[in-house]
């Protein structure tokens, strides 16, 4: 402490300026003072005549002020140094006195300590000898006790090891039994709920089955009644088939006639066009003949008039022209009437021929129309006679469908009357046949427009035989679907009942085995359940069991964890390598100083690997 104080005082004395020395320039000195000091440091002022006396006086005044300030600061610094030297002298005197007293006290304490240590060494030597003797006796006694305790400890270790092994085995057995029992109880509760639901569905399905059986009985009686009617219908169908064949033959002949008539109509259309061309040529020839006749008359009249004028020697052009005008109109009227009569005669011939041909076509079409109407009435009669055979539909859609489906299943859908396709073809060809005839008649004269044939309606309604056949097929299809659903439900009910019986057996085995403390056989029972059920049910059971195992794993002990790993590996089809890796990882997580297991290659989940049995 005093050494640091001395060092600090020495540093301050070394850095402080001496009284007679020059002090450092303070930092507050301005730039102008530095320049003025540099300017005044020379021997004389600059003699260039640029500065005046006023500037020099002001510079001297500022310089004097600066010098005065520096002197004041220098005196202050000297006073501070003197004060510091006085303080230093006082501190040195106090330090010397303190050091002297401290050395004296230290010598006295050392002497007292040496005397005390000598006394204590003598006492401690005596006490140590006594303690050494006592500890030797105690050590011999403790050695004897240690030998006895080591023998007892060895015996206790052996007993504790056997007890620990038994307790671990018992804990493992209890955990495994609890796990399997919880699994079976969980699955049993779920299967009881599903069984109750299935029983409800079974009740509804049995009701539907009874209704279906009643409907089936009704449909059977109906089918027996319908078989007789069907035989009658088959006989009628044979008769109608004969009539249909006859109608088809007549239709074929009508078709050939229609084709011939169409060809004839095309020929008539071409002939009418040729006649129209000939008529136009006749009109042109009549006009040309009229012009030539007019020219001849004009030439003859001109010659006659010129001869008359030459003979008489008179010049009277105006009366001659008037006489010519009087003679010309009757001649023109006669020529026009002659040409018109010829044209009317040709047109009457053409009209008569067309009327004859149209009359023949009308007769043929009337015959075809009568054949078509007879065929249509026969088809309608057959179609009207067929619907009363079908039974009336009841209020419930299922009964009508089941009865119709039973009838269709017993006898099959009979082909009903087909629509008269050939008569429809004839009816559709009639407008195409009448169009050229109409065109020919319209080209001939306005009177023929009233006698053209009206086009018949070709869009006849098709019979309902195909609709009835589709209804029968639809009902038969729905009946098959209902029977298939009923068979599937009954099959599922049988599977659930079998699974329920197996689960009950497994639970009874668990309850019998648990009080005796024997090894559980529940895994084998669960294996038989999953082997007897289909793949989807086994996956559902395994998923539920996996959830149970995971929840159990969250609150289990270390000994139960390995059994749960075994259960998970069985459920997820792990290989032996994957199972060992899980066990090593679990041991690493539970231990304090264990080493982390190294990954053994790329371990992939063995989904398709066979299921390993429980060990």
TrEMBL record:
InterPro entries: Golgi-autophagy_related, GRIP_dom
GO CC list: acrosomal vesicle; Golgi membrane; trans-Golgi network
Protein name: Golgin subfamily A member 1
Function, in words: Involved in vesicular trafficking at the Golgi apparatus level. Involved in endosome-to-Golgi trafficking. Mechanistically, captures transport vesicles arriving from endosomes via the protein TBC1D23. Recognized vesicles are then tethered to the trans-Golgi before subsequent SNARE engagement and vesicle fusion. Selectively regulates E-cadherin transport from the trans-Golgi network in tubulovesicular carriers.
Known partners and oligomeric status: Interacts with RAB6A. Directly interacts with TBC1D23. Interacts with FAM91A1; this interaction may be mediated by TBC1D23. Interacts with ARL1; this interaction recruits Golgin-97/GOLGA1 onto the Golgi apparatus.
Pfam family, one: GRIP
Protein location: Cytoplasmic vesicle, Secretory vesicle, Acrosome; Golgi apparatus membrane; Golgi apparatus, trans-Golgi network membrane
Keywords assigned by UniProt, alphabetized: ADP-ribosylation, Coiled coil, Cytoplasmic vesicle, Golgi apparatus, Membrane, Phosphoprotein
Entry coiled-coil feature ranges: 67-278, 465-513
Biased composition (Low complexity): 381-413
Keyword Phosphoprotein annotated: yes
Membrane topology value: Peripheral membrane protein
Originating organism: Varanus komodoensis
Annotated segments matching region Disordered: 1-59, 372-423, 595-615
Domain GRIP as annotated: residue spans: 536-585
């Amino acid at each position: 402490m005093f050494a640091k104080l001395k060092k600090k005082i020495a540093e301050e004395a070394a850095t402080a300026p001496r009284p007679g020395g020059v002090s450092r320039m303070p930092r507050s000195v301005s730039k102008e003072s530095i320049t003025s000091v540099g300017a005044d440091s020379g021997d004389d002022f600059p003699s260039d005549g640029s500065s005046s006396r006023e500037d020099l006086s002001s510079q001297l005044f500022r310089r004097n002020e600066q010098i005065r300030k520096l002197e004041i600061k220098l005196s202050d610094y000297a006073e501070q140094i003197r004060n510091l030297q006085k303080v230093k002298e006082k501190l040195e005197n106090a330090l010397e006195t303190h050091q002297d007293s401290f050395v004296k006290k230290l010598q006295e304490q050392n002497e007292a300590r040496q005397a005390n240590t000598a006394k204590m060494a003598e006492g401690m030597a005596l006490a140590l000898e006594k303690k050494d003797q006592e500890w030797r006796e105690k050590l011999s006694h403790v050695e004897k006790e240690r030998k006895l305790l080591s023998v007892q400890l060895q015996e206790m270790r052996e007993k504790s090891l056997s007890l620990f092994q038994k307790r671990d085995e018992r804990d493992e057995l209890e955990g495994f039994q609890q796990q399997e029992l919880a699994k079976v109880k969980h699955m049993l509760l779920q299967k009881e709920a599903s069984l109750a639901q299935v029983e409800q569905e079974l009740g509804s399905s049995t009701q539907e089955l009874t209704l279906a059986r009643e409907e089936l009985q009704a449909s059977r009686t109906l089918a027996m009644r319908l078989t007789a009617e069907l035989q009658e219908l088959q006989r009628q169908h044979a008769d109608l088939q004969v009539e249909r064949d006859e109608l088809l033959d007549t239709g074929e002949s009508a078709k050939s006639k229609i084709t011939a008539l169409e060809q004839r109509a095309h020929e008539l259309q071409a002939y009418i066009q040729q006649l129209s061309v000939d008529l136009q040529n006749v009109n042109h020839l009549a006009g040309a003949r009229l012009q030539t006749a007019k020219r001849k008359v004009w030439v003859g009249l001109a010659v006659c008039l010129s001869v008359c004028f030459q003979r008489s020697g008179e010049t009277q052009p105006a009366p001659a022209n008037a006489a010519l005008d009087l003679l010309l109109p009757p001649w023109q009227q006669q020529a026009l009437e002659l040409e018109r009569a010829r044209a009317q005669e040709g047109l009457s011939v053409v009209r008569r021929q067309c009327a004859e041909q149209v009359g023949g076509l009308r007769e043929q079409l009337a015959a075809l129309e009568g054949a078509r109407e007879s065929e249509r009435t026969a088809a309608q009669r057959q179609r009207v006679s067929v619907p009363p055979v079908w039974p009336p539909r009841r209020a419930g859609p299922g009964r009508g469908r089941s009865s119709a489906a039973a009838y269709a299943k017993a006898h099959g859908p009979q082909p009903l009357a087909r629509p008269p396709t050939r008569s429809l073809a004839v009816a559709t060809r009639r407008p195409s046949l009448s169009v050229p005839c109409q065109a020919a008649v319209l080209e001939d004269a306005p009177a023929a427009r009233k006698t053209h044939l009206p086009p018949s309606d070709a869009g006849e309604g098709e019979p309902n035989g195909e609709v009835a056949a589709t209804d029968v097929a639809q009902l038969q299809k729905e009946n098959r679907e209902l029977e298939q659903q009923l068979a599937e439900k009954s099959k599922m009910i049988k599977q659930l009942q079998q699974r329920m019986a197996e689960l009950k057996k497994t639970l009874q085995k668990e309850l019998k085995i648990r009080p005796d403390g024997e090894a559980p056989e529940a895994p084998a029972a669960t294996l038989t359940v999953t082997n007897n059920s289909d793949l989807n049910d086994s996956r559902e059971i395994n998923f539920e069991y996996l959830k149970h195992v995971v929840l159990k794993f969250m609150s289990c002990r270390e000994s139960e964890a390995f059994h749960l790993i075994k259960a998970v590996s069985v459920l997820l089809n792990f290989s032996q390598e994957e199972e060992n890796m899980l066990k090593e990882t679990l041991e690493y997580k539970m231990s304090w100083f264990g080493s982390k297991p190294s990954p053994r290659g790329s371990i992939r989940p063995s989904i398709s690997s066979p299921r390993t049995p429980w060990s």
